[in-house]
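By convention, the token line describes the chain's fold. To illustrate:
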Amino acid sequence: MTNAELQVRFDTVADDFDPGDEISVENANYEMHKNWRNFLEAGFDVASVVRMMSPADIWEHYDDLIVYGAKIDMTKLFNAFRGGFFDEDFTKEHWDELVNRGVSPDLLADRCYGDCDISSTTDLEDLLGKNVSMSKAFELVRSWLEIREEWPEEQVEILTWLYDHGLSKNDVKEWLAKNAHSYMEDYIIESGSDFYEKFGMEDNNMIDHWLERYGYRFFSEEELSDLPDAISVDKLISFFSMREIIENCRPYAFDDFIADYLKAGKDINDLAQKFMNEIGYSSDSSDSGALLDLVYAGVSVDIIDPAKYLDLVDASQLDDCEAGSWYDYFESNGYDSQRISRFLREEK
């Protein structure tokens, strides 16, 4: 084909070319597919030729086109054909070549990874190995992090890994501030993790929140030795009122709690002093039963004096069980039978 014939052919295609018309684009792509090299050999404008070539042909003949002087913006081309030639599979297969031709790894990552595709430190390591920026890696894993609220140990693992590999402390703190939840607090306290401390996120109320949710268990369901290291027995006791402690014990099981308290190495006098400060000598049956449990546990008479209680209590307010228990105590300890007779109940 002579140069004159090539010129006519090229002008016809160029005149008919409309980037917004699918058929026009297909016709131009087809003509360039057959004759792009002939057109360039004949000296036609390289930018005009490239403009009418398909992305597949530009990709295949990229190096030759550069030799002919083409200025190819591969990023612009990549963005223009998001759902076509440069799809996810192609992008993953040709990642290195795309980077070498000017497309940023961050842009490639956006094409390849959607919500929750990145969900492990292995995935993140692969991204950084492909020169994806830390900020983009964090962006891609955020959607997964946000649905893992009930698995805070996984969130902590990912965030710690990101921080250790270059994510800023402020980025982690901002995420935590926006996504704080009780599961994370529970994990931090129960595991003894220094995660919050590492990022300056200590919350003075965090332990109180945990005690509000779970503290009652340690008066009946769990032993004091099972308390997290971050929470002392003294902290637990001081958080709850004495009546809350008694009420949270199983019925008639305050003595079991006392046994656990002593097993934890605590002084019964401290617990008794709290009782006297908040309740004192009471004629309420529940209070009276707890008082007797403390007496049997060996509390100092300087804190709880049974003789003083004998003078102060209204025995008629006690139920039969508590009255009988006190009577047995007084009788076994040699108290005057006449003074303690008011604790006796008539047989029905």
In short: DSSP finds 24 helices and no strands in the chain.
